[in-house]
Amino acid sequence: MKSLFGDEFSRDERTSGWSGKGLMIWVLDIWSVQGVIKQCLRAQVGDDTTILIFLEHWVPQFSPAELLQSCMDPGKLSTVSDLIDPSLGTWRVDVVQALFPAPVASAILSLPLPVDRWSDHMVWRLEPHGRFTVRSAYNFLLCLDAQRETTDARDIRFYKMLCSQPLLKKAWIFIWRTFHNLLPCYVNLYLKHVVPDKHCFQYGTGQESVLLALIGCSQLHSTWGLFGWEQFTQGHERDFREWMVYVLSHLSIPETHKLFLLCSLWVARNYQLYQGHISSDVEIHGFVTTYLEELSLASVRPDVVPVPIDRLWTIPPVGFIKVNVDGSYDKDLRMGGIGCVLRDSTGQLLAGYSSGIPHAMDAFHVESLACVEGLNLALSLGYRSLVVEGDSRSVISRVASSQVDCSYGGCITDQIWDLATSFDRCIFQHVGRDGNRVTDVFGREGLSRVSPICLFGSPPPFAVPLFASDQAALFS
């Protein structure tokens, strides 16, 4: 359980330890929604002996029911091991293609299998990295809730009214957060069991709602008075939506910009609560006025269009070689092409490699395999110090991280880490597309290749112009 839920499971354990009662409540909460949680899990193929093909979610794009419905002969299959050659550790392509239609077969064959076998395990399928997050679970539960407040007709009318007003974005977001009880006033904190009572921290009496924090005292009344809005300071006990409708119905279109005052009053409240600084009515009025004046000036200033800077290929440090990797992915054909280019600290081409990937899951899958092939090529040529560059930020960030990768491509990430330990020095860094242009054409060439190519010394015809451009930029 801890391997799946990660930090969400252990955060209290790190601070004060799990008490018996607290742990029991947590377990009961998880148990009560186990049916929902099961919908969010996916089996990760390891030793392929325990995953039931038609009962567990293990292919990202297809549910177990869809696999069962599409299978030509379900009686021949039980666990995922029936689809894998045990001696080679690869998919039994003929069996998969014979039993499943092309889209399903392609999705299965594109699943990478681990080189080092581990036990089958469950991962969280709502996140690419495979680990549980509160955010993804919360959003999933919201999708299941057919009675959400935003579907209420009254709320829709309120939103339509808001959208028809030329409010500043900051004011619009503030109103939206207030409407959904997301601002940490004492009433909301009390309802979430964060504070012991809901009385206003300034007066000690009265429940501190957002509306009380905006219009509930004489100093706030004088601030509103500086804008000529004394009539809006009455009735802080009413519903916020009702008060907001009243305010907007009494303001002219140009005046709605001044509702930035709401955000400023809330910031002033927080300064007083957390830093002890009490902002005067004149100070708040001056800040709002200055902000709106500067905003109006900014809107009439001409835009300055920045000149794009080409960040071309750069040489590695002396003693290193640079391994650039890239991948191309054809979504319609579900095919990939990978390219690897090795150059020394003078920019000379040492080796280039291009190959096709017949069953590719997605761009991340292809980019990861390109990194594997680049490291294998450098290792086979005897190089010891590498700078590995790629333009896929997701791949580079994962291989440069020490965190365990629980995604479907985690076995490829493990393979990259194992290869990296074979070198004296191996540095992974991200580069923009302009710095990876030569490798990109190698990757696109791989899309059309049946067999791989490996070149040494001089670039192939399809890469000559871009290679010459990189060389010219180095010595310009």
UniProtKB/TrEMBL annotation:
It holds the Pfam family RVT_3. One of its GO terms (molecular function) is nucleic acid binding. It comes from the Eukaryota. Residues 324-442 form the RNase H type-1 domain. InterPro entries: RNase_H-like, RNase_H-like_dom_plant, RNaseH-like_sf, RNaseH_domain, RNaseH_sf. This is RNase H type-1 domain-containing protein.
